[in-house]
Design brief:
Elements lengths: L3 E6 L3 H12 L4 E6 L2 H11 L3 E5 L7 H10 L8 E5 L4 H10 L3 E4 L7 H39 L5 H20 L3 H18 L5 H19 L5 H6 L1
Parallel strand pairs: 1-2, 1-3, 3-4, 4-5
Helix pairs in contact: 2-3, 5-6, 5-8, 6-7, 7-8
Length: about 230
């Protein structure tokens, strides 16, 4: 398994040395250091790190400005960034997150626990990536579900009903894992409605109602604050 590439950016050589030592002793990390925002922008585009640790207060180009340049470059736009700063009050952290950072590591930090703190952030970042992947999949499932819903009015074939059950079963299992409990509940209800229909005990109306309920719940997720759809509409 390849090491996780981490780019550390700080104008203070002592800080770069301590971070390099703290993280470099861990075989899971491969660390490179930059002394300026301009150097970080170039190195990030060439090296493609998995994570960037970025100092806030730097001469010439500070951390927030560096982050803006990183986000404006397609090659570095999606690289997670953690600010390292003594300005770690709740209001300031919220401002950094609003700028596009994934989190903050407070200064002064403990060299003995820095690797653990970075691992914790990496876990959160990876979970967020998986969650985003689930939402992309759910959006595709919603489109297929809409097609099946339309087909039911013309042809309630076993294949169509079976596909609805597959979609519902997949969403019911995965949605809850990623914290979308309401989607999971609606998907479970749809799966139950399909099973009942196949057994001859459920009505066509109950089946379509369950489909519509799940699709409404999915639509509500796309329009939720913070979703891409909501952001693009703003």
């Amino acid at each position: 398994m390849s090491a996780t590439r981490i780019l550390h950016v700080d104008d203070e050589p002592d800080i770069r040395e301590i971070v390099g030592m703290s993280l470099g002793l861990n075989a899971e990390f491969e660390v490179r250091a930059c002394a300026s925002g301009a150097d970080a922008i170039e190195t990030a585009a060439e090296w493609s790190p998995y994570l960037i640790l970025l100092d806030v207060m730097m001469p010439g180009m500070d951390g927030p400005t560096t982050l803006t340049h990183l986000r404006n470059n397609p090659r570095t736009a999606d690289i997670p960034v953690l600010f390292m700063t003594a300005r770690a009050q709740a209001r300031e952290v919220e401002q950094f997150i609003a700028l596009g950072a994934h989190g903050v590591i407070s200064k002064p930090f403990d060299p003995m626990t820095l690797a653990f703190e970075v691992r914790s952030h990496l876990h959160t970042i990876r979970l967020a990536a998986l969650r985003k992947g689930f939402l992309r999949r759910a959006k595709n499932d919603a489109a297929q579900l809409a097609a099946c819903r339309s087909a039911l009015g013309k042809d309630a074939s076993a294949a169509t009903v079976g596909r609805i059950r597959e979609i519902a079963h997949g969403l019911a299992g995965a949605a809850g894992v990623f914290g979308f409990d309401q989607i999971s509940n609606e998907a479970s209800a749809l799966e139950d409605a399909v099973v009942a229909r196949l057994a001859g005990g459920g009505t066509f109306k109950e089946l379509t109602h369950a489909i519509d309920s799940l699709m409404s719940r999915l639509e509500a997720q796309w329009d939720a604050p913070g979703s891409k759809r909501a952001q693009s509409a703003a």
